[in-house]
Design goal:
With 216 residues, this protein is of the alpha+beta class. It has 2 domains: 123 residues, no CATH class; 80 residues, no CATH class. 25% of the residues lie in helices and 30% in strands. It has 5 helices and 15 strands. The chain has a 6-stranded mixed beta sheet, covered by helices on one side. Strands 1-2-3-7 form a 4-stranded antiparallel beta sheet. Strands 5-9-8 form a 3-stranded mixed beta sheet. α2 runs antiparallel to α3. It is globular and about 55 Å long.
Length: 216
């Protein structure tokens, strides 16, 4: 880790406790993050439900390390500045030899290091939010998709009904809405936005303001 921090230059080791405590404190952009699980033995790790450009065999042995915002910023972990620092640090750590994938727990996802770095860097540089990776989509039934992980950023998830069972079209709508909501923030009333192809989408929050139904 010392070698990587020196070579990468974007982060530093800010606290190195006793080895038996099995964690490090890393500093990036003036913010501290805890890296734990460094001495974990190889074991079978159930693959997340949502895989992006990564193939994890059912019998593959892996060691899982976890990066978390430090105690003083944990309550603000979803604000843009902390998220940006978190993702930049993950991009740096993904350069470590032997990294199989980068997981994002709120979306129950696992991405290849190259995929993660590409979509996250593009977003941090002003591109669209990586709705397939940092968020994900799950089928509620044959005609309905629901987002997973959007609530980490907005406190809300979205529900999109497919048209004639066309989940690909529904996913395209969902990606557009997720990007919009991450940039805009949570909705407390109905709103209309442009669809990705043509026409408009109606975004309708439920009574509890936790789920937004997307209607075309």
């Amino acid at each position: 880790m010392r070698v990587l921090s020196q070579q990468d230059g974007s982060f530093a080791i800010s606290h190195l406790p006793d080895a038996e405590l099995d964690w490090l404190e890393l500093l990036v952009d003036g913010l501290t993050f805890d890296l734990s699980g460094l001495s974990a033995d190889l074991s079978l790790c159930p693959a997340p439900d949502n895989l992006f450009d990564v193939d994890l065999a059912s019998d593959q042995l892996v060691s899982t390390i976890k990066l978390s915002p430090g105690p003083h910023i944990s309550a603000a972990s979803a604000i843009p500045g902390v998220v940006a620092a978190h993702f930049r640090l993950l991009c740096a750590l993904a350069q470590l030899s032997g990294v199989v994938g980068v997981g994002w727990a709120p979306a129950n996802s696992l991405m290849s290091p190259a995929y993660f770095k590409r979509v996250v860097t593009n977003w941090l540089d002003g591109g669209p939010f990586p709705a397939l990776g940092i968020a994900s989509l799950k089928s509620i039934d044959a005609n309905t998709l629901q987002s997973e992980g959007l609530s980490y950023f907005t406190g809300q998830e979205i529900l999109v009904e497919t048209v004639a069972g066309d989940q690909q079209a529904a996913a395209k709508l969902a990606v557009r809405v997720i990007d919009y909501l991450v940039e805009r923030g949570p909705l407390d009333r109905e709103q209309t936005i442009e669809a990705p192809d043509q026409g408009y989408l109606l975004l309708a929050p439920d009574r509890e303001k936790k789920l937004i139904r997307v209607l075309k």
